[in-house]
Structures are given as C-alpha cells and as structure tokens.
Amino acid sequence: MPTFRLPASLGLLLVGLHLLYGALQVALLFPLAGASRRQRLRRRWSQGLLGVLGIRIEVAADIAAGLEGGLLVANHISFVDIFLINALLPSAFVAKGDVARWPLIGWLARRNGTVFIERGNRQAAQQAREHLLAALGKGQRLAIFPEGTTTAGDRVLPFHGALFQAAIDAAVPVYALALSYHDSSGVRSEAPAYIDDVTLIDCLGAILRTRGLVARVHCAASFRPPLPNRRHLAHHAHQAIVRTLAHLPDPRNRGAKPFQAPRQPLRNEVEIRQ
Quick check: is 259 in a domain? Predict the structure, then answer.
C-alpha cells in the first residue's frame, strides 16, 4: 500500500488518533462481530497504522495461503512486529504481563485475545499454556516471539522452547516467520528497534523520521505434525529464521557471497552480518 512521510509531531498525533479509532472499533464493533469479521477489522486497522508510520510491507509470496490456523513464531525487533503480522495474518499474541498494564494498548491487547504471561510465576505460566492449548485446539492462529525480548535486527537470540509445547500437544502446524526492516536503499534499518532504554515515543519518532521504511516478511519454514520435542522444534525454527535473514540481499556489497549461518551457532546465537 502507498506510504507517505509526515512531520514526526503530526505523525505522533495521527498514531494516537488511530489508536483511539481502534479502541472504538473494539468497543463498538467487536461485540457484534464474528471471528472472521474481527480478523478483517484487525487486518485493516494494522495496515492503516503501518501506513501512518510510513512503513511499506514486502512479502515474497501470498504468505497467508495455507496458514489458516496453528502457531506463528518470529524473531522480535519492535512493537511494530505485532501490527506487521496482524496486517498479513491476524493472530492472537502471547505477551509479557506488563503489556496488559500499558495505557490503551494494554486494553486493546486484552480484547484482541492476547495471552499474558507473568515472568517468574509458574502457576501463571501453566494457566497461559492451558489458554494457548485451548485456543489452538479451536483452530485459532496464535503468534509468539520465542526470543523473549527484542534485538536491533542484527541477530537472532536463542529461542525459548516452553511455548512450543502447546503446538505439540494440540498437534497443529508451526510456521517460522523472518521479519526485517529496511530503509529506502534496502539496507537494514534499526529505526524500529525497541531495545535497551528506547522509549515508545522515541521509537515512534525514529520510525516517523526515517524515509521509505520497508518491512519484509518471509515464511522461513513450516513444521507439521507429528512435531519433534519442543527443544528440537525451537532449534529448527530458530535456524530457519537465521538462514533466511542471513541470505537477504545486501545493497552495500552485491558482489560478496551471502553470510552462511553455521549449522551449530556459537552459544546458540547467530549474528546477521548485513
């Protein structure tokens, strides 16, 4: 969809208005809408937010084909990742418990089927797993970020395997998505990275000040039942995403061979050298 660049201050205002518009949709339309209608609303709203942020989506193919249900797993760079996935494959997400307490965003997340996990709380983790298993058993599509945190997009951190267990128990497919953000010249951009001491407002400002941002989404691999144990499943999903990101073209060095990710990453972490 076409994108345009706005002054950061105006862009922040429009983002706020778009959030309010989303809240009105959730409050007024969701109670009357069926599951498919809610998915369409979520997709259009997410596409609209990316348009306000000036982010264009690129996909290699019809990524939604054949992905009706199951578990989506992706590398994690930014809060934008949620809306990027929802713009293509509307899903319920698993999120850290503190997201539920964010103003407005937490309220929206709760009413969009988000499953919240409180760190260090074993009982809450078990309850979250039961919610995941029930949702997957009903044919819903769920999405997780198994790194458990965000990066600048230059590496993929180790995947935690615990949340893969719900897909194994429910006997549903697992799809590994590789996400990356690029500037107008095709070079990987850190503008959307929501890391370290970066605040939400700082991150939004960086995105709005960057011209021609492109978000790329690749389906790196799919795993269908019967699935291996969660440790091996997490490893294979991790490696598939690493290989996909490592082989993205680098416009700064077109003549060089693509970076080859090692079969066994050092300390279970691979840097994406682009």
Answer: yes
